[in-house]
Amino acid sequence: MKKIKPHWQILGALVLATLVALLLRSIDAEAEGGFIGGFVGFCDFVGKIFMNLLKMIIVPLIVSSVVAGIASLHGMAGFGRMLGKTAGFYALTGLFAILVGLSMVNLIKPGLTDGEPNEIIKEAFENNFESASESAKEKVAAAEAKAKGIGPGSGGFFKLMANFVEGMIPTNVMKAASDNRAMLGLIFFSILFAVAITRLPVDSMGTMREFFQSLNDVMILLTRWIMALAPIGIFGLLVPVVYQSGGQLFLVLGKYFFTVLASLLIHFVVIMPLILRYVGKVSPLAHFKAMRTALLTAFSTASSSATLPVTMRCVQDNAGVSKKIASFTLPLGATVNMNGTALYECVAVIFVAQVVGFQMDLSQQFVVVLAALLTSIGVAGIPSASLVAIFIILLNSGIPGAEIAIMTLLAVDRLLDMSRTAVNVLGDSCAAVVIAKSEGEKGILEPKPEASS
Questions:
Q1: What is the pTM of this model?
Q2: Where are the alpha helices (DSSP H) in 245-322?
Q3: Which of 172, 211, 266, 406 is the least crowded, having the fewest Cβ atoms under 10 Å away?
Q4: CA nearest to 414, candidates 259, 245, 258
Q5: Radius of gyration of the chain (CA)
Q6: Considering the domain boundaries, does residue 443 fall inside one?
Q7: Structural domain contains residue 449
Q8: What CATH number does the domain containing 333 carry?
């Protein structure tokens, strides 16, 4: 019997989880505290175990892959060239994403009705803020306080970028390894460590390089084992999300939802494929086929970092990118390249401005574009990063009622988070492919017999 390919297993888990969750929601609410509540709770537990397994291998995978990849470059010339290409690619695609979001939110105007602020949405903002749980209010308050700490009265975006650069240099490498929010510092240390290896005598350098190469091979094997559990884990992750998502707010915010999703879709199926075709000179369809398992995993987990092991496997095994390119571009991209997040921030801020009746001219909207690009990078290591970023942009733009609007956006954010994470991961993988082609690598996205996903 022919084995079902991983991407079909994951897609089946997504469909089944959605159907099961919708069925549970349709059952009488009185049964919620019994079997249904217990089943949803068990699914949540299974999903968390799967996420923990993925997160468990992130640190050793990043360290081993970055060190092994850069050590194979034989010096700083190749590293500097690759760093420049990677940074340029991420900045350019991030700008494209934001401009797509800005165009769509100004075209559709989800916060307006007949040119006037939508009073129904404004009322929903206020009602949802009043009825929100204390934990949700505390989360929003903490994000607002964090944003004010790097807002206009405190040095603004200079402080934001200063904090970002400071966060790149960990005072304690072991602590950085234990904190997902300090992942950029771990990458920076790994890069320095790898460059230092290339300065060792030939015998010592070979020994160190072989050790980290072997460690990386072990981590890839562990990734394969964990991904064998992906259909079960993804089922567990999705059931609680669909079950707990009430329909009322989604109906009220339907136009906003459509704007965000349509913008993400344009970037996903138009902008990035055009870059692959005309910059990378590769087939976009072949790339999507190679990355389907990673994209489905990203959508299910809503975490670029947790998806990183899967992304690296797909880029190397399916797309044919070398380990030295993938091991540098992908860990860095999972930390700082947030195309979907930057797009979402831009749409969310303009949407809030429309609802509260705050008029924004072109110069103010340009500030939003620049702020979305900077914050999508600069707040990568902060808890609830996109929430803090939106607060920062709202505060810098002078838009009133931020905390009330944010509470409602937070309540319906999970599905949008899943979608923008898939866009983020696509951007990372496209960077790896385009940079590999620019470095003269052969066999990128060429047909392979019985290629696994």
A1: 0.85
A2: 247-252, 254-266, 272-278, 284-301, 304-313
A3: 172
A4: 245
A5: 22
A6: no
A7: no
A8: 1.10.3860.10
